[in-house]
Amino acid sequence: MRRIILAALAALVTSAAAHADAIKVGVVGPFSGPFALQGKNFKAGIDAYMALSGVKVGEDDIEIIYRDVPQADPAQSKALAQELVVKEGVQYLAGFYFTPDAMAVTPLLEQANVPLVIMNAATSAIVTKSPLVVRTSFTLWQTSTPIAKVAREAGVSKIISVVSDYGPGIDAENAFKTGFEAVGGQVVEAIRMPLSTNDFSPIMQRIKDSGAEGVFAFLPSGPTTLGFVKAFNENGLKDGGVKFFAPGDLTQESDLPALGDAALGLQTTFHYSVSHDSPENKAFVEAAAKAIGNPTELSFPSVGAYDGMHVIYKMIEATGGEQNAQKAVDAVKGLSWTSPRGPVSIDPESRHITQNIYLREVSKADDGTYYNKEIQTFEKQGDPGLAALK
Amino acid sequence: MQTIFSIAVDALAYGMVLFVISIGLSVTLGLMRVVNLAHGAFAMIGGYIASYAARDLGVGYGLAVLIAVFGTIVIAIPIERLLYRRIYGRPELTQVLMTIGITFCIIGIANYVFGPTLKTIPLPPSLQGSADLGFRSIAVHRIFAIVCGLCVAAALWYAIERTAFGVRLRAAVDDAAMAAALGVRTEVIYAVSFAVAVGLAAFGGVVGAELLPVEPYYALRYMVTFLVVVSVGGAGSIPGALAACLLLGGIDTTGRYLMPEFGEFFFYLAVIAIVCVFPRGLAGRMK
């Protein structure tokens, strides 16, 4: 039965593509619900790219079709991807904020003859699930490994790791542990907290009791990071000299106004800061801020989406608008360009993005707003998580 | 020993924040018999108003709290007249559907008006920072939340058990028709109680904002927690709600300190155990 459906699906796709006048790109992301801000950033990045690079590739018009998956929901994500391929006849799938949603779609790609460009979902394993997956965001391994080095150089040898208990949190914990032990440090304790935690005081007490000199923390960006950072300050850990290290999810730009002074001086490593100083980023931020409406809502998924669109445009150029997923993916292997975040390239082996990771410190600008100030660059970082999978 | 004290202090602080936010729901659910799932939405409105007043209008914290409480009541009055009045005494399913619908509308409006980002309520300098208890430090605003919780509990208990209004309210709850026949204006009683419940929600939303930050999905995110507190405490009972908050806060905090990887396992295990032994909650009234 499944085969018949897939065959019908493939037939439909090819016939649809043959007399389609526009090349359609299906984007799946959270456009409503608690994560709508991230979906909005996808859309801003895509709009910015199309505003700066045009809505046509060669003779072909590009049409974006959005589908909404408000929360991580693999079944719905798969159903929507199927619908996009069969009914809408999209040639490219893109977007995906959550790992499970992206994972659910990978088995469809080959039969549907559609490449998948991931604009956010950050678990290392996704690219291994299908040869037609390309990722333009980051992985937690990629952003959490450099901070281990930073921590060691700051003179910390005993550290406690505290992460949210879900896939990316565990990735962050493992990445940090691997990186920190490689430079001679020791993770004295690893705590995994439930995602729904609101009150972090008991966790802070654990940190204090562990006697560690520093803490490595990962929580998904959003409301809980505020409580965590405040609890860290209020329970006397900051004043007690415990050093704080985290990947940049904790200090994403759209949360900074709320974090305010509590976050001042926090050091995080990440692949993109809205404040990154380059002409490419200036043009991008201007276009994306216009697309999103409120510039303070601009955050990292927008740059993943922007570069994702770049990759898709290159794929369309290479295939001349023909539907040929393998050819499209092959064309972007090794592709390098200057992104708003800095120089990047697609690793031909893993099809994941190689990029600079920046150490940033939350600082206050002259106009009283907060931003992530880049203070150190780790150049051309690949994804160490893929090596760890083997 | 020090650890035990430490956990106890955290549990007390967390429990009291839960109490301040949940007690309004206990009033609507227990005394007015309305399953008000929009309670969290009113708490959120309070938080938004306080945040707007303090950040954009630049008023002081105390005034911002007052504006939040009364602003939320003003917003709630037409909602009560037009929507809630229709569902008093109706079956619970109707109430659930109506109030969850109201919740979604409020989430949508908050998202549209204030945007999806977090909003904070700046604290006055006197509530910032932390106080030293000798064996550990605790945030001053948590002590403030504990005091607020105790004041609210005492004031509500006095109003319901000791004043003429409380007598009328309890009469209207037990037998609305008979109370009306005896000259109690039940409509007014209900409207006032609803306003008080909404005001308490707003107050809790503001006081608890440091722990549960204000954002559009606030209304849904913490709904289960509020409902659990009320059902464990026994709807409508103030000592019951207080006991439930302290007990659940204690279990949650201890579990999180000792075994965070178990998540909320112990919290819900305790809830199941309590509801098995006391089906109407710790201090629920028998029907």
From TrEMBL, chain A:
Ribonucleoprotein keyword on record: no
Domain Leucine-binding protein: 23-364
Protein name listed in UniProt: ABC transporter substrate-binding protein
Coiled coil: none
GO aspect biological process, one term: amino acid transport
Domain of life, per lineage: Bacteria
Keywords: Amino-acid transport, Signal, Transport
Nuclease found in the keyword field: no
Pfam families: Peripla_BP_6 (PF13458)
UniProt record similarity statement: Belongs to the leucine-binding protein family.
UniProt xrefs under Gene3D superfamilies: 3.40.50.2300
Signal peptide extent: 1-20
Automatic annotation (TrEMBL), chain B:
Keywords, sorted A to Z: Amino-acid transport, Cell membrane, Membrane, Plasmid, Transmembrane, Transmembrane helix, Transport
Keyword Cell membrane: yes
Compartment annotation: Cell membrane
Topological type in the membrane: Multi-pass membrane protein
TM region(s), chain numbering: 12-31, 61-84, 96-118, 139-160, 188-212, 224-250, 265-283
Signal peptide extent: none
One Gene Ontology MF term: transmembrane transporter activity
Record bears the keyword Ubl conjugation: no
GO biological process: amino acid transport
GO cellular component, one term: plasma membrane
Homology family: Belongs to the binding-protein-dependent transport system permease family. LivHM subfamily.
Protein name: Inner-membrane translocator
Native source organism of the sequence: Sinorhizobium medicae (strain WSM419) (Ensifer medicae)
